[in-house]
## 1
Amino acid sequence: MERIAIISDIHGNIPALQAVLEDIEERQISRIFCIGDLIGKGPNSDLAVDMIRNSCEFVIQGNWDKYITEPSDENPTVTWHRNKLGIDRLEYLRELPFSIEFYVSGRFTRLVHASPRSLFERIQPGDSFDSRLSLFDHSDLCQHQVQADIFGYGDIHNAYIQNFQNKTLFNVGSVGNPLEITQASYAILEGQFDQRESRPYSIQLVRVPYNIELSIEQAIEANMPSLEAYILELRTAEYRGKKSS
């Protein structure tokens, strides 16, 4: 049996990323896949890109990773994060692939950032059955034009696992900007990698405490834009765009 750590949505939060990488190392997991949003929101996008490049076997693009490379976007927050990256890191983010696809224990597995159709389509665990079921579909953006048996994604910063119609759907949550509890989140996929014969497999969600106040201190020292919203999310795990009822 082989174990793969799947991380997502680091968002420039280095104390959270360090805590997760240390936990992965303590578990003696050697393979790490990153499914996007290395940058933005937090103050250290440049360091996050460098650490992910050094630590992860496969990395795919997230929505922040895509639009940070589009100079037509004049949003001042996006511009601030873009200016920290430099030409080499921006080119790296621009060239990241859309999906990671492989067999594990006889189950065709697809990992993307948000949905098989788009980096910007957002599907929550409480959305309609048909919406969630559609995540197992494919599009021209995917490597293989077949339905997935296991589908994993990030983007919503909300970790969960659901099983239905002989398929498994999971979200890894967020390393650097979790929005359910104030701990970093990632997933461990265990099984026979690149094996098409049906064998046992498992998916585990892991929560990792980290030094939130250090992350906030780094954001303050960097004079980061959208600072108050970022601090609120880290301390409360409440999404800045949530509207009161």
## 2
Amino acid sequence: MHYPQNVLFLRFSSLGDVIFANYTAMRIKEKNPDFRLTWLVDSFYADIVRTQPWVDDVMVWDRKRTKNRGFLEILRQVRRRRFDILVDMHTSDRTSLFSFLCGIPVRYGCKKRFPFSHTHFSFDDLMDTTLPVSRCKRYLYAPRTVNDAAHVSVPAGSAAIGLAIGASHAVKRWPVRRWIEFCRFAETKGFYLLLLGSGADEVGMAEEIVSAAASRYIINKVGALSITDTIALINELDLVVSGDTGLMHVARALGKPVVGLFGPNFPGVEAEYMDRLGRKYVCHCSNSGCEKLECSRQCLEDISAAEVFEGVETLLPNI
């Protein structure tokens, strides 16, 4: 008799990495519909994971509150549940140790770090690996929401464009003055612009953009939505302009055309995706792609608002 396999899928964070991992979870369940897939995730991203139709159950680790004590407790819970398969989507020492101690007999990992921590380093028997994520048009399910602020209504014939204005590091952000210039270009075409993001820095940026651009076409959503409501809103947009940040990955996973702005980080698998479904702009600095996130030079300043707006206009007729 064939019994379903109980699978523990491990990806705690961050937003962009959770979105990428969602593609793998989808493909695993697609090939093995009888698997029961449980996702172990940080509490901040749990609501995203719960909405995915290929996820059967969610285990939550509140890392911010419980820290290492929570790591040991979640490890005890995993051992009690007697999973058959572990899929570790991290490449860290901590998850390698988790894999070694979890008591799960079959353990898939992305990269070998410690001897005996994982038993497999290829996912070929778990999923179809011939279709890379860059060629998959959509791999994120947008949750339903009753929050009116997570919906957008624009006049017929008008475009609704999301502007993800922030990033985790200042050097990865397009300067405020460039966003203002872009907003002024967009106003001449009657495009509606929704400012997206969260956090104190981004709230301040949004207020500056709204004040300087002084346009009735700008709708400020920064700091006003949960992450799941933001995903629901992006699902209703026509296009997203973003630096290298989590919301860019959300838009890609929802199949939205993306105009991506890159400086210290080169687009990785995003590059092929954007060649197919969007546009990418990389700063002109000779050290672009240096990954120096504390660099004092704001290299994204090199990317002009005019060229980004031209990219948007090129994409919109195809929507």
## 3
Amino acid sequence: MNEAGYLEELASKLFKIKKQIPLPMFKDKRVYVFAADHGVVQNGVSAYPKNVTYQMVLNYFKGGAGINVFARHMGLKFFVVDSGVDYDFEDNPSLIKMKVGYGTKDFSMGPAMTREEAITCIEYGMKVAKKAISQGADLLVIGDKGIGNTTTATAIFASFGFDVNKITDIGTPIPPSSVIKKRNIVKKALKINRPNPNDPIDVLSKVGGYCIGQMAGFILEAFKNKVPVVIDGFPTTAGFYLAYKINKKVLDYAFFGHLSKVKGHKVILDSLGVRPILDLDMRLGEGTGAALSVYLIEAAIKYFNFKNEKVRS
């Protein structure tokens, strides 16, 4: 009898990862926000221009974004990874420079990047995770920042066979006419590029983003080192999905922090058979929903330990 309901499922999943009683509390919790620009933005698929991406990253350094608030609240060390922002940032303690390029190409006109760049994305993401884990990180939370990222995520999911009409939604506030444009741009991209659903690297190169590719590599490396990862919203789940298509075992190490308000997110999570921890109608992005869910993951650990201590006594 699961008196604590879903909390017990969370604890059970952690036990399968850690195989320890009592379950250890996290000592080094971190959130990594992967940032990049997307060439498809030039088609008017977002309410904001491309330069908002770098402005938001600069705001992270000032501690002025939602993810900064929640990272502080949850005791998470905060990092932003420059995967491919069209801007050169000065050094900052929170910044990890992993730039593959200054934004992808417009995938409605041709491939977003070369296959070599796609492979580099995976390798760079793995490198970021490997360093974090070597420094002691034992819980990794990931988020994404980049104007146009929901369009890119939609194109990735559509490449794997999801119905464009069922997953296309607003990321930033845009009118219904722009949602139609967004959907048509994705359909055009699939027709022109013909991404191979049996080749995740091909999908990434044809319609992906530098940040999404790096998140996939990050997740693969975390799995390799048996470190749990908390996934955020729609674009972050696209990164997870690429990793999942490369190695389905990553699902055993992933926690899905929340259900995004972006309608396609539920479609994807349902297809994976997973349950998000929170459902708060959020579409903030940046890893915010995932960061908030850490509170309940830790509560699940404490309850698991309490329950097992009672059994032993």
